[in-house]
Amino acid sequence: MSKNQNIHELTNILAIALRHKIGSIVNKDEIYAQKYAKDYEMFLKEAVKISLRENWNDSDKIKIKNELKIKLKDELEKREFIDNKKFDIIDGEIDNILGVLKLG
Amino acid sequence: MVQEEKFIHKVSKGSRFNQIYIPLGMNGIFEIGDIVEIKLLRKKVSFYYSKNLKKLSNYKENLAKELFSFLSGFKEIKQAFIVGSFLTSKIDYNDIDILLISDKNIENEVYQSLIEKFNIKFHVITIPAHRFEYLIYSCPLTRSMLSYFVSNKEFILPSQNKLDINHIRFLLMTPEDLLEVNLGSRAYYDSIRRLITIESFLENKPVDILKINNQLTKITGESLFSLIKNNEIIENGQIKFLREIIKRKLDLIKNKLNKLK
Fold first, then answer.
1. In B, what residues contact A, Cβ < 8 A?
2. Would you call A32 and B166 a contact, using CB atoms and an 8 Å cutoff?
3. Closest partner residue to A39 among B165, B166, B174, by Cβ?
4. What residues in A contact B171, CB-CB < 8 Å?
5. For chain A, does the N or the C end have fewer beta carbons within 10 angstroms?
6. Nearest 5°: phi and psi at B223?
7. Where do the domains of chain B lie?
8. CATH code at B48-151
9. What one-character DSSP code corresponds to residue A28?
């Protein structure tokens, strides 16, 4: 698989993982904020596996961040049942997850 | 010098004050006007079964009582439940699931204390009381979790459901994602169980976790059931088969939700 394909796959799964996490944060009056965080963790684990396939340079990291932001916004726009506060925390959550994957 | 005399008794209920009676044979030792000291030796443990749970083995019941006694030391806990496979499987359980109703998030503190004291694996969830009130009506997964429990206080799961479409749609996200993303096989097990639970909830049927497991076994067959339950590697053909089940169930649930809107 080429590096570009890996970036594509990685950002797809990260966008899904963050959609779950952000959904559970902004709907925190609901129980799933606490209990269903494990859905996010399941997708994050898969993202970690993909992230280990390559050695990423600085320009790859910028590409990943930009692509992830577009995909995540799209994922969240499609889910109108997630509170609109979701758009306020996108940037922070992206920085956070990329930091965890040492891609920040 | 006063000789150290003692006796052990339960505190009993009096009309104005709770009381401790002095045993008849000790009347001469403990006399009116003497000064005594009262020390708490063991908290009383109340123990309640959900109505469809069979009596646990002595070992499990005693362990559960010890757990409740230990948890009674945390004043923030309003009610404690033990749920999950520890109750419903004879030996096939990995940890003990504990659900605590508490307005303070004491999950980590309780978890650390429990493993320190009992040296067993636990899974602890705390839920504030107002959320718990919401969940027992509106969350299919919470209702299924509470289909079998033991608790330190009486509790009856309400028979009525309240539909929160947004909550259901949130719960459907993972099964939907599994149609496109490949995760470990346990994710298919959890997702199909989740879908069966939601389906039963929408039909206003009891969400009994054992019946849900039976349904899943019927759908997948025993050998595939065992593979996905244990997160074993499965073949592409099996993934395709599981995705078809997920897709069918998702369509059915979405149709029901559209009619209920």
1. 125-127, 131, 134-135, 139, 141-142, 165-167, 169-171, 173-174, 177, 181, 183-184, 187
2. no
3. B174
4. 32, 36
5. N
6. -70, -40
7. 48-151, 165-260
8. 3.30.70
9. T
Cα-based distances in Å from A64 to A53, B133, B182? 14, 42, 21
What is the structure's pLDDT at B232?
A: 96
Residue in B141, B166, B187 nearest the CB of A81: B166
Contact A81 B142 (CB under 8 A): no
For B142-172, the pLDDT digits (tens) are 999 999 999 999 999 999 899 999 889 989 9
pLDDT tens for each residue of B203-237: 998 889 999 999 999 999 999 999 999 999 999 99
Which residues in B lie closer than 8 A to residue A79 (C-beta atoms)? 169, 173
H, E, C per residue of B24-42: HHHCCCCCCCCCCCCCCCC
Cα separation, B220 vs B190, in Å, equals 13
